[in-house]
Amino acid sequence: MGTPDSDSLLAEQLLRFTRRVHRIQKRHIEECGLGVTPAQSRLLRTLAQYPSPPRMADLAARLEVVPRAVTTLVDGLEANGKVRRVPDPTNRRVIRIELTDDGLGALRELRGARRSAASEILAPLSEDEREALGELLETLMSGMPVHR
Q: Whole-model pTM?
């Protein structure tokens, strides 16, 4: 088990690494020239996971943000033609969000940007180190130790 000082150092390293990841991903997304922010990119990826257009409340829950944040993201993506609001077929008071063809194309380009960002971020690591990092991150995300 680490000492309080080593745990503080590790926490600071994780925070700095997270910031670096965000900066690199943002740069790669901007280089696509799609006019999409990293948060909008995340919404597009989340939207693509649904088998049918979700409600904004569904997106907010999946993204773990307040509904107002989703409204702002959808407004921007709708203005750029990436998504559209459509009425629910069974309840006209409910609005659902769907990807447009332009949104699907943007999603493909954004996937490429994420892959190139990941390559840049992981470049210093060997395959074995990448595998070990993946296992460690999975443990941290689940909060459960991996028993070997």
A: 0.80
